[in-house]
Design brief:
The complex is a heterodimer of chains A (154) and B (580). By secondary structure, chain A is mostly helical. Chain A is 73% helix and 0% strand. In chain A, helix 2 runs antiparallel to helix 3 (40-54), helix 3 (40-54) packs across helix 4 (56-66) and helix 6 packs antiparallel against helix 7. The chains are: A mainly alpha (154), B alpha+beta (580).
Chain lengths: 154, 580
C-alpha cells in the first residue's frame, strides 16, 4: 500500500505536517483497536505510514524505494562513496577529541545546520526528478543523523 | 478542582451487562480504584473516606492473607512488590546490609519470595492486592466488577506488563487495557478542561519515574515521547533516609528485619513530615533501646538530590528525543505522592520553565484517568488515546550486539519484520534472542525471549529465508512469529519468557485458585448449615420443654434421639447430612 495514498497526501518530498497529522488522527479514529471499527492490521500500517512520512530521512528513503532505489541498510544498491566515509571518520574523530560542553555544542549546531540544508536540497532534487542526486544526499543525511545521535550520547 | 460525583452506596448507576468496569492505579506504595459513569469520576473508598489501599500483603503462618491497612502492622509484611514485577533476583535491594525480602531465583530466572517456607511469586502477591481492590469496589458499587483498566509505569518493560496482566487474570479481572500512568493522568486533566497543546507529565511514584510528553488535540491524546527509570522512586528516598539514620544514630547495634522495617517506617514518616516542616524528631524502638533520630529539610534535600538530578537528566533527554522545547510546553502535570516534596516542585519548575499544575490530587489523578479510559473502552467515547513504546526492541546479532528493530517512542500498535538467513550449509535451526532496552550490548538490555527456530529445510548457506515478525499490541505487549519462506510454512515457535511466569504456571495457579474458591464456598455453606441446625435444635428443645406434655412420651423420645444424631453430625464436616 502506498503510504502517500493511504494518508491522502500528494506523493512529494514536501509534506504538510499539519495535514499529515490531521489525516493520521482521522484514520486512527477509524481503525485503532479502541474504536468500534477496530482493524489491528490497518492501525499498525497507518502508524508505520505516519512514522515514515513524518521524518525527512525516512520519507526520502521511502520515496526512493518507490522509484526502485534502495538506500536502506547494507544490502542497499546505493553505497556511500569514499569521500563521505572519510568525512564521517574525521567527524567522529573530532567528536571523540572534543572536550567541554561548548565544543560539543558547536559541533551539534553545525550538524543541525547541515541537516536543515540537506533537507532543503532534497526537496529541490525530488522536485526536479534528480533521483541519483537525491539518493546520494539521502545517504549523506543518514550519516549525519547517526552523527547527531552520537553527539547526544556524549 | 475536578468535581467528583459522590453517589450514595448502591445508587451508582449500573453499567451494561450488570457488571462494572473500573480504573485501577496499582501503585508501588498505595493502590486506588475509581469508576467513571456518564463522564463523572469517583474514587471508590471504604465507608467513603479511606481511599488509598496500601499495597501491602501479609501472609500469616496459618495461611491467612491480609491486604492493605490491616497488613501494615504485620511484622513480615510484603511491601513495594511492584518493583519486583517481571524482574530477576538480582534486582532487589539491600538496606542495612539486609535484603528487604527473602528472595530467591528459580529455574526460569524469575524471582520468588520465601514466605513461611513457601515460595511466592510477585505475580501472586500482586494478585492479592488486586483481589482486595476488586472486593472493595464490588462492596461499594454493590455490583460485580470483572473488567478493569490497570495503569502501569510508562517505563515498565514487556516482562513487567505481562506479569501485571497475569496478576489481574489470577484475581479474576479481565484487563481492558494497560494504560501508562502519565497518560492516565493526562486523560484526567484533559477531559476535564478541554485543553489543547503539549503537556509534560512528571510522574514520580514509589518505585518508578516517568516523564512523558503528550499532545492533546480535539479529543486525540497523542503520546509524543516518554522516558524514565523503572527503578527510581520515593522508595529510594526512604532507603537513603533509613541508611542515614542507621549510620548516624543506630551505630553498631545488631539489626533484625523487624528493626529495618521500623526504621524504614520512620524514614517514610520523616519524609512526609518535612514536606511542610523544617525539621523533626522521631523515636525508633530497636531491640531494648529507644533511638532518637533527627532530620531537617536541608539534610533531606541533600540525601535525595542525586535521585532528583537523575529525573532532571531524564526530563532533558526526553525533551531532546521529541524535539519539543520547553517554550512549546503548555502545562506540567505532577503525578505521584513524591511530587509533594518542595525540592522536586522547585526543580521541575526550573527545568520546564513554569509552575506545575497540581489541582488534581497527585495520588488520585492516575486512578481517575484509568476510570475514564475504562468507561471509554466499554461505553464508547469520542476520545482516542494514541500511545507509544517506552523502550526500544532489538534482537541479538553476532558478537552480542543488539540491533534495534523497533525504536522507543514508536506509535503502537506497531509491526516489524525482518528476514534472516542461514550461515552454514545444511543448517536446520536458528536462535533468536529478543531484548528490550536502550543499550548496545546484550548483557546491558533486558532479555525478553529466546527461542530456537527449528525445522528449517537443510539447504546451502544463505538460501533458506526465515521471516520473523514482531507485533506490539495496544497494551505494549509483544508477540513474535516466524515463517520459513521457501516452504511457506509457518513455524511453531516457543517463546520462553526469561522473566515472569510461563503461561502453563498461570493456568495451574488459576485452577488452584478456582479450587480454593470452591473450598471457600463449601466452608461457608457448612458454617451456614451448622447455624441453621443450631436454630432448629433450640426451637425443638424449647417446644419440647414448654409444650412437651401435649405429645406422647414415645414421640418426644424419638424427637430427642433425632436431635442427638443431628448434634453429632454437626461436629463432622458433611453439610448434606446436616441439612438432611
Amino acid at each position: 500500500m502506498n503510504y502517500f495514498e493511504l494518508l491522502e497526501l500528494p506523493q512529494s518530498f514536501d509534506v504538510d505536517l499539519n495535514e499529515l497529522e490531521k489525516k493520521y488522527f482521522e484514520l486512527q479514529r477509524k481503525f485503532h483497536p479502541d474504536r468500534e471499527g477496530a482493524d489491528m492490521q490497518m492501525a499498525t500500517t497507518v502508524n508505520d505510514a505516519y512514522k515514515v512520512l513524518k521524518d525527512p530521512l525516512k520519507r526520502s528513503e521511502y520515496l526512493l524505494s518507490l522509484d526502485g532505489v534502495i538506500v536502506n541498510d547494507e544490502s542497499g544498491a546505493v553505497k556511500p562513496d569514499k569521500e563521505l566515509l572519510m568525512e564521517a571518520m574525521e567527524q567522529r574523530e573530532t567528536l571523540s577529541e572534543a572536550e567541554g560542553k561548548a565544543e560539543i555544542e558547536s559541533l551539534k549546531k553545525e550538524a543541525q545546520e547541515n541537516r536543515k540544508k540537506y533537507i532543503d536540497e532534497l526537496g529541490i532534487m525530488f522536485m526536479n526528478g534528480d533521483i541519483d542526486g537525491a539518493a546520494k544526499l539521502t545517504i549523506r543525511l543518514k550519516y549525519l543523523e547517526k552523527f547527531l545521535q552520537e553527539i547526544k550520547i556524549k | 478542582m475536578m468535581l467528583l460525583d459522590i453517589h450514595e452506596p448502591g445508587q451508582t448507576p449500573l453499567t451494561h451487562e450488570g457488571t462494572a468496569s473500573v480504573g485501577i492505579d496499582l501503585g508501588t506504595t498505595n493502590s486506588l480504584v475509581a469508576i467513571s459513569n456518564g463522564g463523572l469520576q469517583e474514587v471508590v473508598g471504604e465507608d467513603g473516606v479511606d481511599t488509598l489501599i496500601p499495597s501491602v500483603v501479609a501472609y500469616g503462618e496459618d495461611g491467612s492473607i491480609k491486604v492493605g491497612r490491616e497488613a501494615e502492622q504485620a511484622t513480615n509484611a510484603i511491601r513495594s512488590i511492584k518493583r519486583l514485577m517481571g524482574r530477576g533476583a538480582e534486582d532487589t535491594r539491600k538496606i542495612g546490609g539486609m535484603y528487604l525480602h527473602d528472595v530467591s531465583g528459580s529455574d526460569e530466572g524469575m524471582l520468588s519470595l520465601n514466605v513461611n517456607g513457601k515460595s511466592i511469586s510477585p505475580v501472586e502477591v500482586s494478585s492479592e492486592i488486586l483481589k482486595a481492590i476488586k472486593h472493595r469496589a464490588e462492596m461499594a458499587l454493590e455490583n460485580k466488577v470483572d473488567r478493569a483498566v490497570i495503569t502501569v509505569p510508562a517505563y515498565f518493560d514487556d516482562a513487567a506488563r505481562t506479569a501485571t496482566k497475569y496478576a489481574a487474570k489470577l484475581a479474576g479481572l479481565e484487563v481492558l487495557r494497560l494504560v501508562n500512568e502519565p497518560t492516565a493522568a493526562a486523560l484526567a486533566y484533559g477531559l476535564d478542561k478541554n485543553v489543547e497543546g503539549i503537556y509534560a507529565v512528571y510522574d514520580l511514584g514509589g518505585g518508578t519515574f516517568d516523564m512523558s510528553l503528550l499532545k492533546m488535540e480535539k479529543g486525540v491524546f497523542q503520546v509524543i515521547a516518554t522516558g524514565g527509570d523503572s527503578i527510581l522512586g520515593g522508595d529510594d528516598f526512604d532507603h537513603e533516609i533509613a541508611e542515614y539514620f542507621i549510620a548516624k544514630y543506630v551505630g553498631k547495634r545488631e539489626l533484625n528485619p523487624k528493626d529495618v522495617q521500623a526504621i524504614l517506617k520512620t524514614a517514610r514518616e520523616a519524609k512526609e513530615y518535612l514536606t511542610e516542616n523544617e525539621k523533626g524528631l522521631w523515636n525508633i524502638a530497636i531491640g531494648e533501646d529507644k533511638v532518637e533520630v533527627e532530620l531537617d529539610a536541608k539534610t533531606l534535600n541533600k540525601l535525595i538530590e542525586p535521585y532528583v538530578k537523575r529525573t532532571v537528566a531524564i526530563c532533558n533527554s526526553t525533551l531532546d528525543d521529541s524535539g519539543v522545547t520547553k517554550d512549546n510546553i503548555k502545562g506540567i502535570i505532577l503525578v505521584g505522592g513524591s511530587t509533594r516534596i518542595p525540592l522536586i516542585k522547585k526543580e521541575v519548575e526550573k527545568i520546564l520553565g513554569q509552575k506545575p499544575l497540581d489541582d488534581i490530587d497527585p495520588d488520585k489523578v492516575v486512578a481517575i484517568g484509568a476510570a475514564i479510559q475504562a468507561e471509554a473502552l466499554t461505553q464508547g467515547s469520542e476520545n482516542l488515546l494514541l500511545d507509544v513504546t517506552p523502550l526500544s526492541l532489538g534482537i541479538e546479532t553476532m558478537g552480542g550486539i543488539v540491533e534495534n528493530i523497533i525504536p522507543r517512542n514508536t506509535p503502537i500498535p506497531a509491526f516489524y519484520s525482518q528476514k534472516f538467513t542461514t550461515y552454514q550449509n545444511g543448517q536446520t535451526g536458528m536462535k533468536i534472542h529478543v531484548l528490550q532496552g536502550e543499550r548496545e550490548m546484550v548483557d546491558q538490555c533486558r532479555s525478553l525471549a529466546e527461542f530456537e527456530l527449528t525445522g528449517i529445510p537443510p539447504m546451502t548457506a544463505g538460501l533458506a529465508v526465515v521471516e520473523v515478525s514482531f507485533v506490539i499490541d495496544a497494551d505494549g505487549l509483544l508477540t513474535v512469529k516466524a515463517k520459513e519462506q521457501t516452504t511457506g510454512e509457518e513455524q511453531e515457535i516457543a517463546v520462553k519468557p526469561s522473566y515472569g511466569l510461563p503461561p502453563e504456571k498461570i493456568e495451574k495457579m488459576l485452577e488452584e485458585s478456582m479450587k480454593n474458591a470452591k473450598d471457600d464456598i463449601i466452608r461457608k455453606l457448612l458454617a451456614q448449615s451448622r447455624v441453621d441446625a443450631d436454630v432448629l435444635i433450640n426451637t425443638v428443645k424449647n417446644s419440647l420443654r414448654d409444650d412437651g406434655e401435649l405429645i406422647d412420651k414415645e414421640v418426644s423420645q424419638a424427637i430427642e434421639s433425632q436431635l442427638s444424631i443431628l448434634q453429632k453430625e454437626m461436629k463432622k464436616d458433611d453439610r448434606d447430612t446436616i441439612d438432611y
